[in-house]
Amino acid sequence: MTVPGRRSSTFIRLLRSGFTDPSGAARLLDADALSAVRADPVLLDALGATADPDLALLGLVRLAEAQRPEELRVLLDTLVSAKPLRDRLLGVLGASEALGDHLARHPQDWQALVTYEAADLHPGLAEFERGLADAHDPVQLRVSYRRCLLSIAARDVCGTTDVQQVAAELADLATATLRAALRIASAAAPEDAARCRLAVIAMGKCGGNELNYVSDVDVIFVGDSPDGEDEGRAVQAATRLASHLMRICSETTVEGTIWPVDANLRPEGRNGPLVRTLASHLAYYQRWAKTWEFQALLKARAVAGDETLGAEYIDAISPLVWQAAERENFVPDVQKMRRRVVDNIPAAQVDRELKLGPGGLRDVEFAVQLLQLVHGRTDATLHSGTTLDALHALAAGGYVGRADAAQLHDAYRFLRAMEHRIQLYRLRRTHLVPEDENDLRRLGRSMGLRTEPVAELNKAWRRHASVVRRLHEKIFYRPLLDAVAQLAPGETRLSPRAAGQRLEALGYADPVAALRHLEALASGVSRKAAIQRTLLPVMLGWFADSADPDAGLLNFRKVSDALGKTPWYLRLLRDEGAAAENLARVLSAGRLAPDLLMRAPEAVALLGDPEGLKPRTHEALEQEVLAAVNRAENAEAAVAAARGVRRRELFRTTAGDIIGSYGTEDNPAEEDHGALVDRVGSAVSDLTAATIAGALRAAVREQWGDTLPTRFAVIGVGRFGGHELAYGSDADVLFVHEPREGVDEQDAAKAAQAVVSEMRRLLQLPSADPPLLIDADLRPEGRSGPLVRTLPSYAAYYRRWSLTWESQALLRAATVAGDQELGSRFIDLIDPLRYPVEGLGDDAVREIRRLKARMESERLPRGADPTLHTKLGRGGLSDVEWTVQLMQMRHAWAEPGLRTTRTREALAAAHAAGLIPTEEAQILDEAWVLATRVRNAVMLVRGRAGDTFPSEARELAAVGRYLGYAEGTAGDMLEDYRRITRRARAVVDELFYGA
User: Fold this and answer.
1) Which long-range contacts (CB under 8 A, 24 or more apart) does 549-553 make?
2) Contact 53, 19 (CB under 8 A)
3) Residue 708: helix, strand or coil by DSSP?
4) Contact present, 259 and 214 (Cβ < 8 Å)
């Protein structure tokens, strides 16, 4: 019977030793199997030193209870007297539930941990082959494999071996296992074994001698025929052997499985033959292989089977691997591979992913492998399949900065150690950091963090992941700056040739010019150059993420030259986290935004203000423009000031559009493309209206002072009136005036005509600013009619001569500048025309349809692809707008919601009124938004308006990036456009043409 006081004392001691369930631990210590040692203080201290004392004690009790009496005494005596065995055994039991299960099933295997000789401390392939030599069937192989694994895990948890040695030992054990499996398969089919030569090539982490505890073992099989044998029969025999080898390792038995053998890295993947001859492999790699396949072959290593054939394979493919960087598609392939693929990771798991998540193991491995491919063609010291060895060689050769390499080395080792300990617990293939508090506690303690294991683990993990995330891009670019800056004599640097090779690999088409720009920006000992050397590694990465890195770097140099002497410019980029990335995105997205910025470089300041990229209101714009006009000395200076405001605000709009479409590291791309389009359309329309208001004020003030002899209003029509202007759109307008009291009508008309002429002249003066063309061709009588009319004149024309198409054009009429009251009366005048009572008659509907059909056949430019023309093509802007406008003219008299100048608002109102089903409304809206975005993208990329996709590959890629398509997927973009607009045209045929 236990005295209560003693129970309390034991409870407290267990708690202090690290047990989380002291009551349960006390019961386990009272087990009969541990009666001989339960009072030994050495045992309790040893249990308390493990990663999970509760788990270790439970495993020890299960192991002890599985022993025969005489064996139990040996186990317990050795446990108490031999510290190396005690640390190893309890360390494994406290870190791995799965290996505890193995020891409970095979209680004699604890003796594999007793020996403590030199060979046992660092076993190699020969020792593991001896350990598996007695396995003659899959079940025995699994038992022997776990016994060997037990010794690796013991050295690991006790710190006898480091993480790199553990990974190498696991790869050696995998090699020995593949050899044993091939031996078993050959013994089961001796005729097949005699009929062929078979070599097993390890790939991935096994090939690189850096395997995890639980991982697929990637392999490629090479077959051949012995002398005198038929090649086809030999390959068939080799295929049967290879298939049997895979089953021996992969299938689940009473002893579980070892690991899956994955042959999907072979030519043609799972669709290709399992075994090929060496000649067949070479034919595929020389003709069909993609860049990622050569990246995978970096780690190829012959591990089992015919040694001569394996060596021939490695010798044959090695030159192909190191020539991969010279292949035609290397740069676009690299750009695709560089972009992290986390789409397949559930959102809830991204932050727990050690391998694929941001700042994870894959970031380090990819960066190292890419640099090996780029520079390994001229430097054989980089030819290593092991990540850390390759990283060391890159640093020694000057391809990676030594400090960066050291930080990556430490971070990679820590993350791999975490991965090992996570997998060791249950011997399951996972790369997720656990969420359970107890699991995190065990993991932290297994990493040597004992004070606050969970908090310390999370802090260290986040710190190392942050290092990887920060350096992942910088390691590509820092050595480039070191090569041109040459600040530290004696430091190993990239040669100009190696720097050029790296820039080419990262997507720069003119590496010589790029290096020249870098030298101009980063050379010297000035504070400005020092800040540039801090900024440029990250900026270069952002440029490389675009469709035109060269333009991004050139534009950055121009802006830096223009603003380099200002005290705030580099400080803004350095200290405002978003400003530098925003600038990089804007400078490399096309011509329009950089051109706007070059004319007013101080607008860079907008990029550092969280509110700086939001469009300003029409009222604020007009107020600023009119104030600038009033301060000017003459009309020309006044309009120049107004155009300066327009230039700055256009830059604000284009920058916000680009950043919203591309996204940044902290803010993903905006998903609501309709909102983006509406924001751009409204911003450009408001800006155009404010500029026209400024030109009107300047023209009036120059000749008449504050008051024009006639009241004057500007009516926006078309996209301008609909608040849907694109970057390259003209401003379609009508001019209306009304003589002031006491002013002769002829004098008033002359004044109005003079104002219009002066406004157009002022806005068309030669300037570096973007042009603003005023188009009044939609006025009554077109170009033959007067530019400006009075209200009665408009009324008389519309009453007597107006055609249906003119009423349709007035659907998007809205007052944009000048006398608002006069403009309102004009709108009242035209409302009965555009919203006719009882709707359109059948003749008018037929006339609109006939006009639309004629426009489709006559106005589409010759040679244009009708499936890709955004304005007049199938399912494009014209199709959607005419369909919506026909519904407005037929039903707006009864449905007030349709009385709007905006296409998307009218479409939504038609849907709300039941005039168009939900699916059809969504189809039309999607097509209209997409076509509008394409037009905006073309203007942003080319700097000039266009209604079709660019034909030049880099420009087409830039349009794709704006639309959210990854590098190399321009074909998908065009097919998606055709598909979306094809569906829209089907709706148009039904709703507009009545098909």
Assistant:
1) 549/506, 549/507, 549/508, 549/509, 549/514, 549/588, 550/508, 550/509, 550/510, 550/513, 550/514, 551/587, 551/588, 551/591, 551/594, 552/584, 552/587, 552/588, 553/508, 553/514, 553/517, 553/518
2) yes
3) coil
4) yes
| 387-396 vs 361-375: helix crossing angle, rounded to 10 | 50
Burial bucket for residue 672 (CB in 10 Å: 0-12, 13-18, 19+): exposed
User: Residues 676, 670: contact at Cβ < 8 Å?
Assistant: yes
Residue 995 CA to residue 200 CA, distance in Å, equals: 64
Please report the pLDDT score of residue 639 as a whole number.
95
Residue type, 770: P
Cross-strand pairs, 224: 197
- Compute the C-alpha angle 238/241/243, nearest 5°: 110
Q: Is the pLDDT of residue 12 over 60?
A: yes
| CA 881 centroid distance within chain | 35
pLDDT in tens, 40-66: 889 999 999 999 999 999 999 999 999
Q: Which two tokens stand for residue 394?
A: 């890159």
Pick from 220-224, 263-267, 438-442, 490-494: least confident: 490-494
For the chain, the straight-line distance linking the first and the last C-alpha, in angstroms and rounded, comes to 95
The tens digit of pLDDT for each residue in 200-242 reads: 999 999 999 999 999 999 999 999 999 878 999 999 999 999 9
Interhelix angle 953-962/635-662, nearest 10 degrees: 80
Rounded to the nearest angstrom, the gap between the alpha carbon of residue 264 and the centroid of all alpha carbons in its chain is 25
Q: Which helix (H) or strand (E) holds 625?
A: helix 618-631
- State how far Cα 17 lies from the chain centre: 47
Q: Please give the model's pTM, rounded to 2 decimal places.
A: 0.75
**Full DSSP string of 479-537:** HHHHHHH--STT-----HHHHHHHHHHTT-S-HHHHHHHHHHHH-SSSHHHHHHHHHHH
Residues 6 or more apart whose Cβ sits within 8 Å of residue 737: 710, 711, 712, 713, 748, 749, 751, 752, 788, 789, 790, 822
* H or E element, residue 305: strand 301-305
Asked whether 580 and 535 are in contact (CB, 8 A), the reply is: yes
